Amino acid sequence: MNKVLKNILKIAFPVVLGIFILYWVYRDFDFSLAGTALLHDTDWGWMALSLFFGVMSHVFRGWRWRQTLRPLGAHPRAGNCVDAIFISYAANLVLPRVGEVSRCGLLARYDGVSFTKSLGTVVTERIIDGLCILLIAAVTFFLQMPVFVTFFQETGTKIPSLVHLLTSPWFYMVLFSAVGVVVLLYYFTRMLSVFEKVKGAMRNVVEGISSLAAVRNKPLFLFYTLAIWICYFLHFFYTFYCFPFTGHLSLEAGLVMFVGGTFAVIVPTPNGAGPWHFAIITMMMLYGISDTDASIFALIVHGIQTLLVILLGVWGWIHIGLANQKGKG
User: Fold this and answer.
1) Residue 141 and residue 148: Cα distance in Å, rounded?
2) 28-42, 191-205, 213-227, 309-323: which range is least confident on average?
3) Crossing angle (nearest 10°) for helices 44-69 and 218-237
4) Which tens digit of pLDDT belongs to each residue from 247-302?
5) Distance from C-alpha of 145 to C-alpha of 254, rounded to nearest angstrom
6) CA–CA separation, 313 vs 206, rounded Å?
7) Are 224 and 67 in contact (CB under 8 A)?
8) What is the pTM for the complete model shown?
């Protein structure tokens, strides 16, 4: 019963946390305004272009992942790698970060790739992606330092008194988010401890991590990495042109919000729901966008991008099954 309760909490906590933050951010919002904007103000041509880059970011990630598996003697189909990425992102909507495990399981099932070795390559990916976002954040911070300083002040990061801190709603939002990150790290550590009990598992994980050094075509690996992050950025940036109230925002503004949103989704909520909205709305207001318009933007863009993740997950699940069934025949 205790184990069942823990599993329920692992699923329920991220959802409850996301709902709590969303409720706080949108507690006084008129949702009919978002419906009107969706039906009458959204430029679907720009939205389609944004979604195209969202799809391509996953495709490039699947191709890059296949490249890191080859030094391990694994040669999965490119289509299976891409489908596994699609499914993993959809799985993360149910339980944050479970997708990293699920995609390794899919390749083990359909291509016979060692689960623990492929998990090691996923760890490598996360390290590289972490370095990429830190580099992007550092460059953006120096280019737009006044904006970040203002953001920290507006969100209560620099508070002149403890009383003000304890009465600030943003403090509790950040506190709950921090607790969420700690819980995520706890379960990730527990997951690794399970692997330690399996003979040879950690050795395979380490071998998977070290596979990057043996990647044959490193320029291609670099190209895939750049392509992933360019697609991520364009997936977000082109949504500015979908609405009349954000179409004037600059590339620099896009970088600032992209960095803020990327760090916000570290908080373990489904697709960053709640923390992402909070970060984007707050930063948009620093660029002169009204609270209402910023709330409309965040709600519609996040909703459509989440729908894309779901549809790609469904497509990946159907396609990987059919493609491999046909291959067996």
Assistant:
1) 7
2) 191-205
3) 160
4) 999 998 999 899 888 888 877 788 888 889 988 998 898 888 999 999 999 999 99
5) 14
6) 29
7) yes
8) 0.81
Q: How far apart are CA 124 and CA 212, in angstroms?
A: 7
Position 256, amino acid? V
> φ and ψ at 244, to 5 degrees?
-65, -25
The Cα–Cα gap between 34 and 259 comes to 24
H helices of the chain, in order, are 2-25, 31-36, 44-69, 78-94, 99-110, 115-143, 145-154, 162-167, 169-196, 201-209, 218-237, 251-264, 275-286, 291-328
How distant, in Å, are the alpha carbons of 50, 210, 237 from that of 233? 9, 28, 6
d(CA 317, CA 134): 33
Return the residue matching tokens 């954040």.
137
Q: What is the secondary structure of 75-125 as a DSSP string?
A: ---HHHHHHHHHHHHHHHHHSTTTHHHHHHHHHHHHT---HHHHHHHHHHH
DSSP 161: -
Please count the CA atoms within 13 angstroms of the CA of 281 that sit on its side-chain side.
23
CA 169 to chain centre: 25
Structure tokens at 307: 């729908």
The size of the chain, in residues, is 329
